[in-house]
Amino acid sequence: MTSIKHYLDPSHCDLITPDGAITHLQRIDDKSAIATIFIEEISPIFVGFEIDQECIFFNIKSTLAQLGLNGNGIEYSLDKERRCAEVKVMLNTHGFLGEKMLSKLTTGAYIGKIFAADKRRRVREPFYLSRMFGRSDQDRSPLLSLGGLHGSEDLILDVVNGRTVAYLSLQNGRVKYHGDIEGFLASIAKALVYGLPTRRLLRLHQEWDPHARRNIEEDEILLVRTLPLHIRTVFGVVVQDLLSEGYHHTTASILQPDTSASGDIYELFGSSKREITDIPLEFYTLEPYREHVFFSDRDQLISSLEDDEALFKAFDTAPDSDTTRAATFVVKGNQMSQLEEKDWISRDSRPFEFPGPSQRDRQALMVERYVEQQPSYPFLKSIEDNIITSQGALFVKYFPSPLMKRMLIGHKQQRCLKRIYFQKPSKSSDVFFSAEDRNLLHDLEKFGIPVYWVDETSNSVLQYAEKTDADSGMFVPQDKVEDFMKATIFGIYGSNLVTGPFEETLRTMLEGIKEMRETMNHPLLSKDTPLALVTGGGPGAMELGNKVAKELGILSCANIMDFRLKGASVVNEQKQNPYVEGKMTYRLDKLVERQAEFNLDFPIFLNGGIGTDFEYSLEEVRRKVGAIGSTPSILMGEVEYWRAKITHRFQKNLHTGTIKGSEWVSNCFYCVQSAEQAIKVYREFLDGTLRIGKDGPMYEDGFAIVE
Q1: What is each CA distance from 682 to 201, 377, 499, 615, in whole angstroms?
Q2: Do both 188 and 159 map to the same domain?
Q3: How many CB atoms lie within 10 A of CB 81?
Q4: Is residue 634 one of the residues assigned to a domain?
Q5: Which distant-in-sequence residues (6+ apart) come within 8 Å of 661 by Cβ?
Q6: Which residues of 467-554 form beta strands (DSSP E)?
């Protein structure tokens, strides 16, 4: 089983092997020899191990081909288990330099590699290439150009026999050698033994004759030139059967995807009086990770990512262990649909203690080690190192650790990382996010990296979204993101133990607000204003609010707190009610932060206990200090109930002078016994006739009673 880690190996691509060295050289005559080539350390994912040997061929080094030495593979023996291959190669010379070079070759010389021309990887549609023009990689180098950074006019793309073929026009003239080239051949032969680069050195002995004819005679090598070709996204291969009649190209016919202004000399032999005019190339795709493909071009992947069922199936392929963290990076639709456990990188989770700021150097080292142990690290590091060049989506079993922030929002990662999907917020705290988690969500949002929760509780996929000018957000259904960002937010505060007789009143009130949108033209309510309702997500009054909202087509949301029993805690555990569509979760130590992030435009209070009292005080303080505008809060229920809750405290503050200048806050709260009364309050506020805010009246009860 081939691990995903092999695809992140930076040493080579899966269609080509490393260079092989001569282990035996049998000379036939001055112009030919048979060389046995041994190639080792071949990638286990090399396609040549799997396909018919008729589709693999030996590619001789360009340096040798330019000197007139060609090599054709005549016998291949590949060993996948040992990751090696042995190739018998027929070496033939064309011209006197080729003969001289052949005489200096020795065992140990690295002279070429194997290429796997997998027909499944042929580029068939010209658009696959043409869309790359004008685009650049992470280093701002062009992905594909001919004759300049963004040139394309000289590259003609056509479809021949079901494959895309590019015809590269040749420049006038040909390449010739200086007289001192013979003295350099011995150095080239030695450099080949040590695996040293030679092509640039060879160019020092070449010159361009722009007036020479581009025809060819027997027993010579013709070196022709095209405009400089930059190629990053595919392998290019000279198409032998489309060359002009009488011309043959050497087996140095592969243009690798790291070609940069060097894929411009082509080595030809044969016999023809007619000048050759162009070089035909066909193309083979790289592994998906290395294709430099843009996310916007992946229609099938985007469609799959919008399919909740497909996402759940993808996560079902992850290692099934409660102690295992796992991650994978998806760049193609069919890759996502064919995911297997081997396509995930998994790491066992172990307790990890940091020494703290008193030992800063050790702390920094421990953090670095912790980051490197995360399953998403190999993917993010491969993006940083330009091994992964295609844009895609990161799948992680658990939401990434906040310590991964630097790697997640780095320049190169931001360019490639177009979405993050996770299944569980926390390894240690289940569905509840920490404050650091939420900060990371905020940063990812700012850097334009969407985050999605493949939520098993609601059996739906939720996307993180923040309202304009907010520094916090919620996870909401993918098709409701725009609605949430534009929505006016109503909220229900109340007991998790009792619902009270408010269901019909609440339903009628919300129905009336929906109808009111048609006639209002207020920033908070108009015919184009979506509505959302937020609760604490638990049972009782919260469940009532979420239930009514969902039934009315109002986005039903919740800020859910971890109220699970801990130690001597006497807090009632609150199971998430089944009517929540969008949500954010909080750990218990961040209770106050959770309340601050309700961000309600219009709070509604039902019967409640200490928690509701706390929430009432927060809404009161928000209005007093101007954290939000003076919008009406509805107190639903009997006047005497709310007098017992509010009036004594308000009167005490009033008489002791501790709310001097803020008495007006009382005009932001309205006690109603019917939906019609609540609608009246909202209508008067929205049409500007409600006396509310600093210039409004004070109410002795601490709230207004709606008649």
Answers
A1: 82, 52, 23, 21
A2: no
A3: 7
A4: yes
A5: none
A6: 473-477, 488-493, 521-522, 525-526, 531-535
> What pTM value is reported for the model?
0.88
Answer yes or no: do 269 and 313 share one domain: no
Q: Is residue 355 part of a domain?
A: no
> For the chain, what is the mean pLDDT?
91
Q: How far apart are CA 306 and CA 498, in angstroms?
A: 38
Strand-strand pairing, 32-39 and 84-93: antiparallel
> Half-sphere exposure of residue 395, counting CA atoms within 13 Å on the CB side?
27
How confident is the model over 280-335, as pLDDT tens digits?
A: 999 999 988 888 889 998 999 999 999 999 999 999 999 987 778 999 999 999 99
- Supply the CATH number for residue 150's domain: 2.70.40
Q: Choose among 8, 107, 115, 5: nearest CA to 60.
A: 115
Residue 225: which residues within 8 A CB-CB, separation 6 or more? 170, 171, 173, 174, 175, 208, 264, 265, 266
- For residues 328 and 286, membership in a common domain is answered with no
Q: Are residues 439 and 558 in the same domain?
A: no
As a whole number, mean pLDDT of residues 34-52 equals: 95
493: domain CATH number? 3.40.50.450
The position carrying tokens 């002795």 is 700
Residue 374 corresponds to which tokens in the numbers above?
């995360």
Provide the residue range defining the domain that includes 288: 122-173+213-292
Q: Are 687 and 651 in contact (CB under 8 A)?
A: no
- The alpha carbon of 121 is separated from its chain's Cα centroid by a whole number of angstroms, namely 24
- As a residue count, the chain comes to 707
Q: pLDDT tens for residues 603-621?
A: 999 999 998 999 999 999 9
Residue 464 host element (H or E): strand 460-466
Same domain, 78 and 158: no
| Mean pLDDT, range 636-643, rounded to an integer | 96
Residue 458 has pLDDT above 80, yes or no: yes
d(CA 329, CA 332): 10
d(CA 46, CA 14): 4
Indicate the pairing of strand 669-672 with strand 704-705: parallel
Place of tokens 């996307």: 463
Radius of gyration of the chain (CA): 35
Question: Are 186 and 169 members of one domain?
Answer: no
- Select from 423, 456, 489 the last residue of a domain: 456
Q: How many CB atoms lie within 10 A of CB 677?
A: 18
Q: 75, 87 in Cβ contact below 8 A?
A: yes
CA distance 254 to 567: 68
- Is the per-residue pLDDT at 589 higher than 50? yes
Both 297 and 281 in a single domain?
A: no
Helical packing angle, 185-193 and 96-104, nearest 10° = 40
